[in-house]
Amino acid sequence: MRAIIQRVTKASVTVGEEQVSSIGRGLCVLLGISVDDTPRDAEYIVRKILNLRLFEDESGRSWSRSVMDGNLEVLCVSQFTLQCVLKGNKPDFHCAMPAELAQPFYNSILEDMRSAYKPELVKDGKFGAFMQVHIQNDGPVTVELTSPSSPTDLKQMAKQEKQQQRKEKTRAKGPAESGREKGSQRSRQDLSASSGAEGDVSSEREP
Protein backbone atom coordinates (compact mmCIF):
# COMPACT_ATOMS: atom_id res chain seq x y z
CA MET A 1 0.00 0.00 0.00
CA ARG A 2 1.24 3.45 -0.83
CA ALA A 3 0.18 6.77 0.62
CA ILE A 4 1.08 10.35 -0.23
CA ILE A 5 0.53 12.40 2.91
CA GLN A 6 0.38 16.18 2.66
CA ARG A 7 0.12 18.68 5.47
CA VAL A 8 -2.52 21.19 4.46
CA THR A 9 -4.14 24.40 5.64
CA LYS A 10 -7.27 23.30 3.77
CA ALA A 11 -8.34 20.69 1.22
CA SER A 12 -11.52 19.63 -0.53
CA VAL A 13 -12.89 17.15 -3.06
CA THR A 14 -15.30 18.13 -5.83
CA VAL A 15 -17.17 15.80 -8.18
CA GLY A 16 -18.62 17.75 -11.08
CA GLU A 17 -20.11 20.87 -9.51
CA GLU A 18 -20.66 19.26 -6.13
CA GLN A 19 -18.23 19.57 -3.23
CA VAL A 20 -18.14 16.11 -1.66
CA SER A 21 -16.02 16.93 1.39
CA SER A 22 -13.61 19.48 2.80
CA ILE A 23 -11.30 19.96 5.77
CA GLY A 24 -9.41 22.75 7.43
CA ARG A 25 -5.89 22.31 8.78
CA GLY A 26 -4.74 18.72 8.87
CA LEU A 27 -3.67 16.00 6.44
CA CYS A 28 -4.74 15.13 2.92
CA VAL A 29 -3.93 11.49 2.17
CA LEU A 30 -3.86 10.00 -1.34
CA LEU A 31 -4.09 6.24 -0.92
CA GLY A 32 -3.16 3.57 -3.48
CA ILE A 33 -4.09 -0.05 -2.75
CA SER A 34 -2.18 -2.88 -4.44
CA VAL A 35 -3.32 -6.40 -5.30
CA ASP A 36 -1.03 -7.81 -2.57
CA ASP A 37 -2.28 -5.65 0.29
CA THR A 38 -3.67 -7.25 3.44
CA PRO A 39 -5.30 -5.96 6.66
CA ARG A 40 -1.79 -5.80 8.12
CA ASP A 41 -0.79 -3.24 5.49
CA ALA A 42 -3.92 -1.25 6.29
CA GLU A 43 -3.15 -1.34 10.02
CA TYR A 44 0.37 -0.04 9.41
CA ILE A 45 -0.77 2.80 7.13
CA VAL A 46 -3.56 3.92 9.47
CA ARG A 47 -1.24 3.96 12.47
CA LYS A 48 1.36 5.97 10.61
CA ILE A 49 -1.10 8.52 9.23
CA LEU A 50 -2.49 9.24 12.67
CA ASN A 51 0.87 9.33 14.47
CA LEU A 52 3.24 11.03 12.02
CA ARG A 53 4.56 14.15 13.73
CA LEU A 54 4.24 16.70 10.95
CA PHE A 55 3.00 19.62 13.04
CA GLU A 56 4.57 22.08 15.44
CA ASP A 57 3.76 22.27 19.15
CA GLU A 58 2.50 25.30 21.11
CA SER A 59 6.03 26.70 21.40
CA GLY A 60 6.56 26.50 17.62
CA ARG A 61 8.91 23.51 17.68
CA SER A 62 8.60 21.68 14.36
CA TRP A 63 7.89 17.97 13.90
CA SER A 64 6.50 17.59 17.41
CA ARG A 65 2.80 16.79 17.11
CA SER A 66 0.62 14.39 15.17
CA VAL A 67 -2.78 15.07 13.66
CA MET A 68 -4.32 13.40 16.73
CA ASP A 69 -2.27 15.54 19.12
CA GLY A 70 -3.63 18.67 17.47
CA ASN A 71 -7.21 17.43 17.09
CA LEU A 72 -6.92 18.08 13.35
CA GLU A 73 -8.75 16.68 10.33
CA VAL A 74 -7.84 13.99 7.80
CA LEU A 75 -9.09 13.83 4.21
CA CYS A 76 -8.53 10.48 2.48
CA VAL A 77 -8.79 10.04 -1.28
CA SER A 78 -8.50 6.67 -3.01
CA GLN A 79 -5.98 6.93 -5.88
CA PHE A 80 -5.19 3.72 -7.76
CA THR A 81 -2.68 5.58 -9.99
CA LEU A 82 -0.19 5.44 -7.10
CA GLN A 83 0.27 1.79 -8.06
CA CYS A 84 1.38 2.77 -11.56
CA VAL A 85 4.14 0.84 -13.35
CA LEU A 86 5.57 2.46 -16.46
CA LYS A 87 5.90 0.45 -19.66
CA GLY A 88 8.00 2.83 -21.66
CA ASN A 89 6.01 6.05 -21.37
CA LYS A 90 2.64 4.36 -20.90
CA PRO A 91 1.29 3.85 -17.35
CA ASP A 92 0.17 0.36 -16.42
CA PHE A 93 -2.05 -0.28 -13.42
CA HIS A 94 -2.07 -4.07 -13.15
CA CYS A 95 -0.54 -3.79 -9.65
CA ALA A 96 -3.58 -1.88 -8.37
CA MET A 97 -6.30 -3.85 -6.62
CA PRO A 98 -9.41 -4.23 -8.83
CA ALA A 99 -12.18 -1.75 -7.97
CA GLU A 100 -14.66 -4.41 -6.83
CA LEU A 101 -12.14 -5.57 -4.20
CA ALA A 102 -10.53 -2.22 -3.49
CA GLN A 103 -13.75 -0.42 -2.52
CA PRO A 104 -14.63 -2.60 0.51
CA PHE A 105 -10.94 -2.69 1.46
CA TYR A 106 -10.73 1.11 1.29
CA ASN A 107 -13.94 1.45 3.31
CA SER A 108 -12.48 -0.80 6.00
CA ILE A 109 -9.41 1.46 6.18
CA LEU A 110 -11.65 4.46 6.77
CA GLU A 111 -13.55 2.56 9.47
CA ASP A 112 -10.31 1.61 11.21
CA MET A 113 -9.08 5.20 11.10
CA ARG A 114 -12.35 6.54 12.49
CA SER A 115 -12.33 3.92 15.24
CA ALA A 116 -8.76 4.83 16.21
CA TYR A 117 -9.44 8.57 16.09
CA LYS A 118 -12.60 10.72 15.95
CA PRO A 119 -15.10 9.72 13.24
CA GLU A 120 -16.21 13.29 12.57
CA LEU A 121 -12.63 14.36 11.80
CA VAL A 122 -11.97 11.71 9.12
CA LYS A 123 -13.40 12.65 5.69
CA ASP A 124 -13.07 11.00 2.29
CA GLY A 125 -13.70 11.59 -1.38
CA LYS A 126 -16.00 9.54 -3.61
CA PHE A 127 -14.56 6.16 -4.52
CA GLY A 128 -14.30 5.51 -8.25
CA ALA A 129 -15.47 8.99 -9.26
CA PHE A 130 -13.59 11.50 -11.38
CA MET A 131 -12.62 13.96 -8.67
CA GLN A 132 -10.99 17.36 -8.45
CA VAL A 133 -8.86 17.45 -5.33
CA HIS A 134 -8.03 20.96 -4.16
CA ILE A 135 -5.05 21.01 -1.81
CA GLN A 136 -3.40 23.98 -0.15
CA ASN A 137 -0.16 22.38 0.96
CA ASP A 138 1.28 23.84 4.15
CA GLY A 139 5.06 24.19 3.95
CA PRO A 140 5.07 22.44 1.53
CA VAL A 141 5.21 19.23 3.55
CA THR A 142 4.73 15.96 1.66
CA VAL A 143 5.61 12.46 2.89
CA GLU A 144 5.52 9.27 0.83
CA LEU A 145 4.69 6.16 2.84
CA THR A 146 4.79 2.52 1.73
CA SER A 147 3.69 -0.40 3.88
CA PRO A 148 6.28 -3.14 4.57
CA SER A 149 6.48 -5.73 1.81
CA SER A 150 6.90 -8.75 4.13
CA PRO A 151 6.45 -9.79 7.79
CA THR A 152 10.23 -9.56 8.22
CA ASP A 153 10.22 -5.95 7.06
CA LEU A 154 7.34 -5.20 9.42
CA LYS A 155 9.20 -6.66 12.41
CA GLN A 156 12.34 -4.72 11.52
CA MET A 157 10.41 -1.46 11.21
CA ALA A 158 8.62 -2.10 14.52
CA LYS A 159 12.00 -2.67 16.19
CA GLN A 160 13.35 0.58 14.76
CA GLU A 161 10.28 2.45 15.95
CA LYS A 162 10.71 1.15 19.51
CA GLN A 163 14.38 2.15 19.48
CA GLN A 164 13.44 5.62 18.28
CA GLN A 165 10.76 5.94 20.97
CA ARG A 166 13.32 5.06 23.65
CA LYS A 167 15.70 7.71 22.30
CA GLU A 168 12.94 10.30 22.32
CA LYS A 169 11.99 9.49 25.91
CA THR A 170 15.63 9.85 26.95
CA ARG A 171 15.88 13.23 25.22
CA ALA A 172 12.60 14.36 26.79
CA LYS A 173 13.93 13.58 30.29
CA GLY A 174 16.97 15.78 29.74
CA PRO A 175 20.60 15.21 30.74
CA ALA A 176 20.07 16.10 34.41
CA GLU A 177 17.35 13.53 34.97
CA SER A 178 19.23 10.90 32.97
CA GLY A 179 22.29 11.56 35.13
CA ARG A 180 20.23 11.13 38.28
CA GLU A 181 18.94 7.80 37.00
CA LYS A 182 22.47 6.61 36.28
CA GLY A 183 23.60 7.78 39.72
CA SER A 184 20.68 5.94 41.30
CA GLN A 185 21.63 2.77 39.44
CA ARG A 186 25.24 3.05 40.65
CA SER A 187 24.02 3.57 44.22
CA ARG A 188 21.89 0.46 44.04
CA GLN A 189 24.86 -1.51 42.71
CA ASP A 190 27.11 -0.24 45.53
CA LEU A 191 24.44 -1.09 48.08
CA SER A 192 24.07 -4.56 46.61
CA ALA A 193 27.79 -5.17 46.82
CA SER A 194 28.11 -3.94 50.44
CA SER A 195 25.16 -6.10 51.52
CA GLY A 196 26.93 -9.24 50.35
CA ALA A 197 24.94 -9.89 47.19
CA GLU A 198 28.16 -10.78 45.39
CA GLY A 199 29.77 -12.44 48.43
CA ASP A 200 29.78 -11.12 52.01
CA VAL A 201 32.96 -9.03 52.10
CA SER A 202 32.08 -7.74 55.58
CA SER A 203 32.80 -11.16 57.06
CA GLU A 204 36.47 -10.82 56.08
CA ARG A 205 36.90 -7.76 58.29
CA GLU A 206 38.01 -7.96 61.90
CA PRO A 207 35.32 -7.08 64.43
From TrEMBL:
UniProt entry keywords in alphabetical sequence: Cytoplasm, Hydrolase, RNA-binding, tRNA-binding
Matches recorded under Pfam families: Tyr_Deacylase
Cell compartments where the protein resides: Cytoplasm
Enzyme Commission number(s) of this protein: 3.1.1.96
Enzyme class, broadest EC rank: hydrolase
Primary location group: cytoplasm
GO molecular function ontology, one term from the record: tRNA binding
GO CC, any one term: cytoplasm
Listed name of the protein: D-aminoacyl-tRNA deacylase
Keyword tRNA-binding appears in the UniProt entry: yes
Biased composition range(s): Polar residues: 144-153
Compositional bias (Basic and acidic residues): 156-167, 178-189
Family according to the record: Belongs to the DTD family.
Signal peptide per UniProt: none
A GO biological-process term: tRNA metabolic process
InterPro entries from the UniProt entry: Daa-tRNA_deacyls_DTD, DTD-like_sf
The gene coding this protein: DTD1
Region (Disordered): 141-207
Catalytic activity from the UniProt record: glycyl-tRNA(Ala) + H2O = tRNA(Ala) + glycine + H(+); a D-aminoacyl-tRNA + H2O = a tRNA + a D-alpha-amino acid + H(+)
UniProt cross-references to CDD domains, sorted A to Z: Dtyr_deacylase (cd00563)
